[in-house]
Specification:
Elements: H1 3-10, H2 17-39, H3 60-70, E1 74-79, E2 86-88, H4 90-95, H5 107-113, H6 119-132, E3 136-143, E4 149-161, E5 164-174, H7 176-194, H8 211-223, E6 227-236, H9 246-264, E7 269-274, E8 277-282, H10 292-305, E9 308-310, E10 313-315, E11 317-326, H11 334-351, E12 355-358, H12 364-380, E13 384-393, E14 398-409, E15 415-416, H13 419-427, H14 431-448, E16 454-460, H15 469-479, E17 487-492, H16 500-512, E18 516-522, H17 528-534, E19 539-542, H18 554-569, E20 573-576, H19 582-591, E21 595-597, E22 605-606, E23 617-621
Parallel strand pairs: 11-12, 14-23, 16-17, 16-23, 17-18, 18-19, 19-20, 20-21
Antiparallel strand pairs: 1-2, 1-5, 3-4, 4-5, 6-8, 6-11, 7-8, 9-10, 13-14, 13-21, 13-22, 14-15
């Protein structure tokens, strides 16, 4: 039988509307090719009338199967009645990963070939299509004999005989590439929705880049173009009234930041690098641009002449500046240059000059010696103060704890935020000296109090490398008469842990004498999750970077929810820092967070512990919440 015989045979039956539509499409395509061939001057050797070859005298299922075969699709046919059977075409067998004729298809076999997670859904689609006598479609996964998973998309049609339903036929194709592309589009859309601004790069109060961000920018400049770094130091010309609140200090910080941005413009990168310390990074001086020395002098002069308003009172700021000029690819790091600028500003203040200029970075040994001397002098002269901030137990909805915040006293006697000081102490290896000061003075205060509940003392992760720390802590507990069971030692900056063996020894030793262990800044350290595996942790504090914008950030909500579930599974209690509003508090409660701390629950106050007014639980920490203030 040749093609003409097949076409003649196909003409003996009336096609269905579906088959006529298919035939018309084939005819149009063939006619188009024919017209192009004639227009190009080709000789047509054989010509024939276009007739749909699918109109032969066969049943509907066979015609559908033939159409699927021409379109390189596979079919699964399931008919009912006396002649009912379940079969698939060779193309569908290969889609499922089986060679044609090698597998006898049964309902049980077919169900086992479909991915377990998709079986019920496929059955429901088929059942619904049968009950409604209406076509449907479904995409599902199949597991090939090799274990490979493929996505198959099938159109479900109801077969009829004499107007009554007689079976189902599924026409399908391998849709793996299309499904993976769809999943990737959905993933990218989700990632775009979840991606948010790096709040850790901006100070909340001033709106300027933080110390760490500016340090990185200086580091990048010294590797590439070089430039100039100005550090501006400000302090009130007169002692500010004691009645000023944290909100007043925050407002002053914001006003100083706005003035700084106005002066330097958009060509420079400026940031808040410490309490009363502002950094300005300048690119290499271009032709006709203002020299860095001139800008530094103008900054000092403008700040000194400007009148700031705080609580309807006029405030002037004494101002000095340190300028460091540096070339490209120098040995000094961004942190080193920042320290040089701070020291230059301090020298200008000490010597009574508005600015001091360093034409090149300081020598490494000189810089380190100055930093260490500054830290040791602060410790020896007790230039620290302890503040207490309340913490709410969300299960009881009442304050049951307080966190003790370390503050450093400035030259004018103001208590200012310690974050720049502690950063320097950690970098030059003097943080252990500060930790020991805090441990000794904190335990002394605890020993003088009622010790009615629990107290937490924080220790920098870097200090854990000292093998004598456990002995020092144990002796301080004995000397001040503190109950070990009333203490939890909280490790801050776990990413800084230099010796994991010493850290584990300290944690184990602390637990053996009856104290507990906690981790601060959880979720940001490189080894935070690994720490939970080997350190006997009882409490973690979720880092504030996930809390400050919690109710507006789906990404933060997802992270906090999963961290809480993880800790609950491991038997660890959870605290959240930097809680600013009632909405955040409600979300934390719904997640199962145990404790909340922040300006919503109470601002830090100078610590005053006495037997008459006992604090039930206290946390001692060497860090301040992110609302940094220019004056402290």
């Amino acid at each position: 039988m040749d093609l003409d015989d097949i076409l003649a045979l196909a003409e003996t039956s009336q096609p269905s509307p579906l088959e006529l539509a298919r035939a018309r499409r084939v005819a149009r395509a063939a006619q188009g090719q024919y017209d192009l061939a004639v227009a190009d001057g080709y000789d047509i050797i054989v010509d024939s009338d276009l007739v749909d070859p699918l109109t032969s005298a066969v049943d509907e299922a066979t015609r559908v199967a033939r159409a699927a075969q021409l379109a390189q699709l596979g079919t699964i046919t399931w008919t009912i009645g006396d002649s009912g059977r379940l079969s698939w075409s060779d193309e569908m067998a290969m889609i499922f990963g089986h060679a044609p004729g090698t597998l006898r298809l049964t309902p049980g076999t077919l169900a086992r070939l479909v991915h377990t997670a998709d079986v019920d859904r496929v059955r429901e689609v088929v059942r619904t299509a049968w009950q409604r006598r209406h076509p449907d479609e479904v995409t599902f996964r199949v597991i090939q004999p090799s274990g490979a998973v493929r996505h198959v998309h099938c159109h479900i049609e109801i077969l009829t005989t004499d107007g009554a339903p007689s079976g189902i036929i599924a026409t399908g194709a391998d849709a793996t590439a299309l499904e993976l592309a769809r999943q990737e589009r959905r993933r990218l859309a989700t990632r775009t929705d979840m991606l948010c601004a790096d709040l850790g790069a901006l100070d909340i109060v001033s709106g300027l880049p933080t110390r760490s961000y500016l340090t990185d920018e200086v580091d990048r400049a010294r590797r590439t173009t070089g430039g100039a770094l100005i550090v501006v130091a400000t302090e009130p010309a007169t002692r500010l009234p004691d009645a000023l609140t944290d909100e007043n200090y925050d407002q002053l910080t914001a006003d100083v930041a706005r003035l700084l941005r106005t002066i330097v413009g958009d060509e420079a990168t400026c940031g808040l690098v410490g309490s009363g310390l502002w950094g300005v990074l300048l690119p290499p001086t271009a032709e006709h641009a203002e020299p860095p020395e001139t800008l530094a002098a103008r900054l000092v002069d403008t700040f000194r002449r400007h009148l700031f308003s705080v609580q309807h009172r006029t405030v002037r700021l004494n101002t000095w500046a340190g300028l460091v000029l540096f070339g490209s690819d120098i040995a000094a790091t961004g942190f080193d240059l920042l320290i040089d600028g701070e020291h230059a500003a301090r020298d200008a203040r000490r010597n009574g000059f508005p600015t001091r200029v360093l034409t090149e970075p300081a020598a490494t040994d000189d810089r380190t010696d100055k930093c260490r001397s500054q830290v040791r002098q602060a410790v020896s002269t007790n230039r620290f103060a302890l503040y207490a901030q309340p913490i709410v137990d969300l299960r009881l909805n009442e304050v049951t704890r307080h966190e003790i915040l370390l503050r450093v006293r400035s030259d004018t006697g103001e208590s200012v935020a310690p974050w720049a000081f502690l950063d320097m102490a950690e970098r030059v290896g003097e943080i252990l000296t500060v930790d020991k000061w805090v441990i000794d003075h904190a335990l002394e205060l605890i020993g003088r109090g009622a010790q009615t509940s629990h107290y937490q003392v924080n220790i920098s992760g870097k200090s854990l490398a000292d093998p004598g720390l456990l002995t020092y802590v144990t002796e301080a507990i004995r000397r001040h008469g503190v109950k070990p069971e009333c203490l939890t030692f909280e490790i801050t900056e776990t990413a800084l842990i230099e010796n994991r063996n010493e850290a584990l020894a300290f944690a184990t030793g602390i637990r053996e004498i009856g104290c507990h262990l906690a981790l601060d800044d959880f979720g940001t350290g490189y080894n935070a999750l690994a720490d939970l595996k080997y350190l006997p942790v009882d409490l973690v504090k979720i880092d504030g970077v996930f809390i400050v914008d919690l109710c507006r950030s789906p990404a933060d909500q997802a992270v906090v929810s999963m961290l809480v579930k993880l800790c609950q599974t491991l038997g660890i209690r959870v605290a959240a820092e930097y809680v600013q509003d009632e909405e955040t508090l409600d979300f934390l409660k719904s997640c199962g967070v145990d404790f909340a701390q922040g300006y919503k629950t109470g601002r830090p106050e100078p610590l005053d512990i006495s037997p008459e007014k006992a604090v039930r639980t206290i946390e001692f920490e060497l860090r301040l919440p992110p609302q940094h203030s220019a004056m402290g």
